[in-house]
C-alpha cells in the first residue's frame, strides 16, 4: 500500500482555487480533487496563506474572498506549517542576490517548508520549484 503524498501549497495555488477568473482555476480544481482522492497530506506554510489572502484583498479587491479564505485556513482541518528561524535559514538555500524578482523570498520559504517536511510535491504553477529540484503537484502519479 502506497503512503499518501505530502504536498506543500504555494499562494498561487490557493488563489487559483478560490478565484474562478484565475487562469489556473480549472487546473487547480483538478489537482485539488486528485489530492483529495489520493488522501494527500496537504501543508500550507503560514506565509503562503498570508500572501494569498493579501493578494485577494489588495490585488483582486475581494475582501469577502480574503476573509472567507482566512476563516477556512484558521479552521481545524487545515494543516498550517509555522515559519520559524530555522525555516528562514533553510529558505536561504533557495535565495540569492541574483534571484529573479518574480521568485520572492515567499517562494523560498515554501521550498524550505517542502524540504523540511520531505514533501513529495509542491502545489504551485511556478516552475521556480522545478528548477530547485522539486516536483509539482500536477506531476504526481
Descriptive account of the structure:
This protein is an alpha/beta fold and 141 residues long. The protein has one domain: 5'-nuclease (Rossmann fold). It is built from 7 helices and 4 strands, in the order E-H-H-E-H-H-E-H-H-E-H. It has helices spanning 11-18, 25-37, 46-58, 63-73, 85-91, 105-116, 128-131, and strands at 6-9, 41-45, 79-81, 121-123. The protein has a 4-stranded parallel β-sheet with strand order 3-2-1-4. The model has no long low-confidence stretch (mean pLDDT 93).
Number of strands: 4
What gap, in angstroms, lies between the N and C termini?
Answer: 14 Å
Helix content: 40-55%
Strand share of the residues? 5-15%
Note the main attributes of this structure.
11% strand; Rossmann fold; alpha/beta; 141 residues; four-stranded parallel beta sheet; 7 helices
Secondary structure layout:
Elements: E1 6-9, H1 11-18, H2 25-37, E2 41-45, H3 46-58, H4 63-73, E3 79-81, H5 85-91, H6 105-116, E4 121-123, H7 128-131
Parallel strand pairs: 1-2, 1-4, 2-3
Helix pairs in contact: 1-2, 1-3, 3-4, 5-6
Give a brief outline of the structure.
The protein is α/β, with parallel strands linked by helices and 141 residues long. 48% of the residues lie in helices and 11% in strands.
Amino acid at each position: 500500500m502506497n503512503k499518501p503524498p505530502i504536498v506543500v501549497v504555494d499562494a498561487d495555488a490557493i488563489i487559483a482555487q478560490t478565484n474562478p477568473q484565475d487562469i489556473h482555476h480549472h487546473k487547480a480544481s483538478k489537482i485539488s480533487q486528485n489530492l483529495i482522492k489520493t488522501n494527500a497530506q496537504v501543508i500550507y506554510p503560514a506565509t503562503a496563506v498570508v500572501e494569498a489572502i493579501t493578494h485577494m484583498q489588495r490585488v483582486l479587491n475581494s475582501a469577502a474572498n480574503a476573509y472567507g479564505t482566512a476563516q477556512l485556513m484558521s479552521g481545524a482541518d487545515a494543516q498550517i506549517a509555522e515559519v520559524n528561524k530555522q525555516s528562514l535559514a533553510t529558505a536561504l538555500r533557495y535565495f540569492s542576490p541574483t534571484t529573479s524578482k518574480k521568485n520572492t523570498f515567499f517562494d523560498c520559504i515554501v521550498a524550505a517548508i517542502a524540504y523540511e517536511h520531505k514533501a513529495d510535491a509542491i502545489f504551485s504553477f511556478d516552475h521556480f520549484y522545478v528548477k530547485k529540484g522539486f516536483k509539482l503537484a500536477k506531476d504526481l502519479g
